[in-house]
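Notebook, student rotation project (T.W.).
Task set for the rotation: take a protein with a known small-molecule partner, predict the structure of the complex, and write up what can be learned from the model alone. Partner molecule chosen: flavin-adenine dinucleotide. Sequence and SMILES entered below by T.W., checked by me.
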Amino acid sequence: MKNYDFVIVGAGIIGLTIARELAKRGHRSVAVLEKESEVGLHSSGRNSGVLHAGIYYGSDTLKAQVCAAGSKLMQQYAKEYGIPLERNGKVIVATSVESIPQIDVLLERGTKNGIRVEKITEKELTEIEPEAQTKEFALLSPDTAVVDSGGILSALVSELNDLGVKLLKNSEVIAVKERTRTLQLSHGSLGYGYLVNAAGLHADRLAHRMGVGEHYQILPFKGIYKKLRPEKAKQFRGSIYPAPDLRVPFLGVHITPGIHGQTLVGPTAIPAFGRENYGWINGIRIGEGIHMLGILTNMLALNKNGFRRMVREELGRYSNSGFLAATRSLSKSISKNDILPSKKIGLRAQLVRTDTLELVMDFVLETGDSSLHVLNAISPAFTSSFKLAQLIVDKAESVSR
Ligand SMILES: Cc1cc2nc3c(=O)[nH]c(=O)nc-3n(C[C@H](O)[C@H](O)[C@H](O)COP(=O)(O)OP(=O)(O)OC[C@H]3O[C@@H](n4cnc5c(N)ncnc54)[C@H](O)[C@@H]3O)c2cc1C
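Predicted structure of the complex:
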């Protein structure tokens, strides 16, 4: 049986950047296991591609610690490997009178986090982003960028190959024997010295098999995108985001001019009942779906942090008129003919605390005897990944020595 010092489960952005960090630090026995036949089939290949500046997060969070630094590292990487990147900035607008105070809260958070962010008036907003609209004030984030997420993943795969990291595709981890440090895979088995769980939408299941993070459960939230008609898309320079409800971890439907000339609108954050439920019912396992529905029902009944209102609003976006209303709150003249369908759908690996029935806001790193588990790798985990990988490898090295 083949044995590796470090085995990483999941070849999304988190697994790949961790493998790179290990190899760069001189570790020669590193393998990444991926259940799919190619990388990027889940969140890392299905996101908005926005490199967040780091405005939203309280200064005591892991997100604040790694987001801005991660964005800088990814931008350097994109430059080095010639991956398309656009530093086109973003504005955050108040879509209702009630959300005006959020502008000041975000200004304070961003400033505390050392991020460049500026409060601007409605008139200044029109000069910067003529199609955007706000109530009284907005925020300008000049350091927000968009990147070709697929390009980053491909560059990492080829770099890992050069660094001697073994990427094993079609290799699903099915069971773990911790006593012998053995993994049972879809084909054969493998030994590990230290295991890093970066399994995204399945990370809680793997953690639970190893007796870790048992009070957490992933409740997936579906992100449906649409796109703007090309003639309309030309009127937008950078991204437009609404000032979000900071009690929930979702940023709201936004407009994002991407690097391939396509301007995306979305994503929604609609509760899903399967970890890979990209269509209507495919990807739903009945037993698990019923369990998730049970958690959701209890969360709706408790209604912590305005959860009921959030779900109601998001469900409304399943309809074209609900989606249009969310888009129109950001922009002056978008009409229903400007919004075209898109096949892009992502699922967020959102963690819930099963004891308090609350959505978890920050990234979570849990450790076992010879394992580390990356839980709640939700946005901005793509942006943060290169910096988060450094932190994770620091931890893994200190335990595995
Ligand atoms: C709609 C949407 C929009 C987003 N927008 C942004 C954004 O603009 N900016 C940003 O920074 N972040 C964004 N995010 C978040 C970001 O995409 C994710 O945080 C990030 O991609 C998570 O990476 P990951 O490696 O943890 O997960 P994944 O990319 O899901 O990778 C995990 C991998 O593990 C594999 N796997 C699972 N179980 C097993 C197993 N048992 N054995 C072997 N392999 C396994 C899976 O096949 C998968 O390839 C967005 C997310 C979504 C869903």
